[in-house]
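Handout, section 3.2

Students often ask what a structure token actually looks like in practice. Rather than define it abstractly, here is a full record for Glycosyltransferase. The first block is the sequence as you would receive it.
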Amino acid sequence: MDMVAATPAAHVLVFPCPVHGHITCMLHFATGLLAAGLHVTFLHSDHNLRRAAAASSPRLRYVSIPDGLPVEHPRDVGRIVELMESLKTKASVAYRSLLASLLLGDATGGFPPVTCVVADGIMSFAVDVAEELGIPALAFRTDSACSFLAYLSLPRLLELGELPFKDGDDLDEPVRGVPGMESFLRRRDLPSQCRDCSDPDNDPLLQIVYGFTAHSGNARALVLNTAASMERAALAHIAPHMRDVFAIGPLHAMSPTAPAAGGSLWREDDGCLAWLDGQADRSVVYVSLGSLTVISLEQFTEFLHGLVAAGYPFLWVLRPDMVGASQSATLREAVAAAGKSKARVVEWAPQRGVLRHRAVGCFLTHAGWNSTLEAAVEGVPMVCWPFFTDQQINSRFVGGVWRTGLDMKDVCDAAVVARMVREAMESGQIRASAQALAREVRRDVADGGSSTAEFKRLVEFIVELSTTAVAAIKDEEYVASYVNI
């Protein structure tokens, strides 16, 4: 990246929601800020900092606060609302105290006072607390622009009567209430929270997701990990609702340097890359449903039988907590027995390395935004089986807009798995579309590309905000009034 020379006083606190995909994405963002010459404090939860291998550097440090949940809490997808509520009501108190102390800076550690906060957009309290303390704050969303626009359009969907759904309604009915998507969006493609909202006015989850999306308009700017070549139309429809919008992705492809350490909450099995070395070009199906997806034993069995029937070698990421209460060792044995020498199972994989490996022919994925971007950059065809939230609309874009893969949502049947995997592996049209999109995205992140230009503009924006913040921070009475609250 050809970045501006940032003022030494610019010091950004980066605060992701404490779940794996959000941390990974925002660490790539932190890496970009470091490359631009800024100081960065990366805020983990205590629980996650214990799991992550986090090593500080001269302009990067890791700090943590409690998330407010008991140590034994599973923090899994089934209780994600509990985590969000605890962050808002309990962690926010510790966050406020930490921010107030960081207004003083750390002369011994070489860190100036924090002058800007970039907080995960699904934690609106983090933006509000920073602004209350006089620190300018930006909202960063780790999901796609198309899903953000869908959440932002919820009032319009309700006004048109396209929400709520009724039992027995046709999920393939077109949806007209999301601007720019009238020609291809269906009910089944809306974010998963839309499916269970029989009473939208009293649906806490729907109110939460709309609330933090609309709240991003209060932040100094909205930052999105996306590229203009992928989501130009959605970005144009979002912009009038925000104070400013920066499309700066895919972040993992923006810099040749490795991301700042301290992100992965799972130990990657590098041995799978050596296994891929022994496979023929474009012969392997890579299967990973992300860090949160949970499937039943019956669904596992359908996936397994479908993969075996497809007839290709496969590399499958099976987290220990992924298949109900089943034992991971039993699942590995089942895969080994079914796939014989053609299968490899790991608990976690170095995904970017896997996707760029010559042996990988397609990616069976949950269509999480990080995974979607990583496949897009490498030009790998996808078969999408979305699990929840934004994955539903991401998979529709893969199958119906970019045409870089197939959308398998709402189906878990061995025959369908086998058919779609074969098509993704063998279709010249899908592969050509995937490679064409990869070329466009790579232009966006190259020198002179739209994402690189936007990242430079963002750094300049943060430096300008920081200059104003530094002037206020130099007022000792101003700082003391917050440190002593």
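Discussion prompt for tutorial groups: Residues 2-6 have pLDDT under 50 and may be disordered. How would you have guessed this from the sequence alone?
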